[in-house]
Write a structure and sequence with these properties.
With about 500 residues, this protein is an alpha/beta fold. It has 3 domains: about 5-90, no CATH class; about 120-255 and about 490-500, no CATH class; about 265-470, 3-Layer(aba) Sandwich (Restriction Endonuclease). About 55% of the residues lie in helices and about 10% in strands. It has helices at about 5-20, 25-35, 40-45, 50-60, 75-85, 100-110, 120-130, 140-150, 150-170, 190-200, 205-215, 245-255, 255-285, 295-300, 330-335, 340-345, 345-365, 395-400, 400-410, 430-440, 445-455, 465-470, 485-500; strands at about 175, 200, 235, 240-245, 290-295, 310-315, 320-325, 375-385, 425. The protein has a 5-stranded mixed sheet, with helices on both faces. Strand 3 (about 235) and strand 4 (about 240-245) form a beta hairpin. The protein is globular, with a radius of gyration of 24 Å. The mean pLDDT is about 90.
């Protein structure tokens, strides 16, 4: 049986061991461990980067920090500490101690997948599309400037420049400020300093930031959290900056504007962002060249009362309802072992979308002469900003929200329904690829979803994430043309080339 007390007892043993050593030495050795050359991606994962980052967090939060009177440390001692922390997972909840195996799997995914994916420049290009073209006085731009001292286009371009330069010096964890000298004509020193202040802190400042968010308790859920270093992936070292991990920097870069504004005030940000995200989803949906109706068009046909859905794609054999939520899973929802906590974290996104789709489907069934057919195969795609790691609606039903979904189905028992196995949660990155691939290959979305459903019904062919399903389409997934990564970099390359 899982016990927080047993977990804490083992944590204290590890804490007492690392307290014997100088924390600054452990930091330097840990960074050297992460940045030492790896012969393969498997070898890089075997370094247990999530464990290293958890050790860093614990040292910074410890009341004996910086522990400057501790002993010197060796690689053998670090290896022992990392091994001990790795085995602490046996006290943080075994798979058999979870209500559903997927709840355990999603915790592992949140903890580890961020260290397994290279930089997705399409995410940075998407942030540029979503935020850089807003009117000068738009509230989102104002909020970002008040927080960072930067305009959003400045951040996007400087982050792209940093990633380009880092790629050219991939084995060097030190980011040198002289890298940015060629940009001096466009970005004065003051702007560069503001940029680095947004993603870099010295260890003392990192400690203060972590203390501000910490409740002082070392609970088992912390073991599986996305490292908080995603908010400050660089460590300031005199006038230069050390990369904690290239993967942490990549994840920061991919959604920095979104993360910064949500962290500052989620309600205010989402009140403005919802429509922006919905417009982007429609732009991507157009890539499929499939017929679809918007929320406004559906309201004109079915009436404005009641719950609505953002889009309805109509194919001969199927209706595909699409709702753009533009959200991410809360930190608590990412690491919890409790189905009820996940249910609470998804109440206003997943559950709401399921209710909305069924309300519209009911109105379609009641309507006559509107050209809408409810008695087809019905699917629901819920588009989120980031991956939820909940597999599909059938898993969500079994593991999280059986009672809630049964109530929805009971309310519409005399009407067509969207079966749980016909519901998918898709992060916007995967939705981009899906729609571009459908459009360029002239594929049927309904047939693709039917294939996914059939595969997911068999444990031998089922997939955990939508990205894995896309990789199994039988065709090469394609990147949308509007996510023009060369276009994102072109102005920087001109500046850099002119200075050399």
């Amino acid at each position: 049986m899982f016990s927080e007390e047993r977990y804490f007892v083992e944590y204290k043993k590890i804490r007492n061991r690392f307290r014997k050593y100088r924390y600054v030495d452990l930091f330097h050795l840990g960074l050297h461990h992460l940045h030492s050359p790896s012969k393969s991606s498997l070898q890089a994962i075997e370094k247990l980067p999530w464990v290293v980052m958890l050790l860093f967090k614990w040292m910074l939060l410890d009341d004996q920090y910086p522990n400057s009177r501790g002993k010197t440390v060796s690689q053998a001692i670090l290896d022992r500490l990392l091994s001990d922390i790795h085995h602490l997972s046996t006290k943080a909840g075994l798979p058999s101690q979870y209500a559903h195996h997927v709840i355990f799997m999603r915790k592992l995914a949140n903890q580890q997948i961020l260290y397994q994916e290279e930089m997705r420049f399409t995410c940075l290009a998407r942030e540029k599309i979503l935020f850089s073209g807003l009117p000068e006085k738009h509230q989102i731009g104002k909020m970002f400037f008040n927080i960072t001292g930067l305009h959003i286009p400045q951040y996007v371009e400087l982050m792209a420049a940093l990633l380009v330069q880092m790629h050219e010096s991939i084995d060097d964890p030190l980011i040198k400020t002289e890298w940015f000298e060629p940009l001096g004509s466009k970005y004065p020193q003051e702007i560069l300093e503001r940029f680095f202040l947004t993603i870099s802190k010295d260890l003392d400042d990192v400690r203060q930031a972590l203390l501000a968010l910490d409740n002082g308790r070392r609970l088992a859920n912390e073991y599986y959290e996305v490292t908080p270093f995603v908010r400050f992936p660089l460590i300031t070292a005199e006038n230069d900056h050390l990369i904690t991990s290239k993967f942490i920097l990549y994840r920061c870069a991919e959604s920095f504007v979104y993360d910064t504004l949500r962290e500052w005030n989620a309600d205010k940000f989402m009140a403005k962002f919802g429509r922006i995200f919905e417009a982007y989803v429609e732009r991507v949906l157009k890539l499929t060249h499939l017929p679809y109706r918007t929320e406004i068009q559906l309201m004109q046909l079915l009436g404005p009362s009641g719950l609505q859905i953002d889009f309805l794609v109509e194919e001969e054999s199927a209706n595909i309802f699409i709702d753009a939520k533009g959200v991410e899973m809360s930190r608590k929802g990412q690491t919890t072992h409790s189905p009820s906590t996940i249910r609470s974290a998804t109440k206003t996104s997943i559950l709401k979308a399921i209710k909305q789709a069924h309300a519209v489907l009911k109105k379609m069934a009641d309507s006559t002469g509107q050209g809408l057919a409810a008695d087809k195969h019905n699917y629901l795609l819920i588009i989120t900003y980031k991956e939820f790691f909940l597999r599909n609606g059938a898993t969500y039903y079994d593991a999280v929200a059986k009672s809630d979904m049964d109530q929805i189905y009971a309310k519409h028992e005399n009407y067509p329904a969207i079966l749980a196995e016909n519901i998918y949660f898709i992060a916007i990155d995967e939705f981009d690829i899906l729609c571009q691939t459908i459009g360029s290959r002239k594929l049927s979305l309904a047939k693709i979803l039917a294939t996914f459903r059939a595969n997911d019904s068999d444990p031998h062919t089922s997939k955990f994430t939508f990205r894995q399903r896309l990789s199994n389409l039988g065709v090469d997934p394609e990147i949308p043309e509007h996510l023009d990564v060369p276009g994102l970099m072109s102005s920087l390359e001109l500046i850099l080339d002119s200075a050399t």
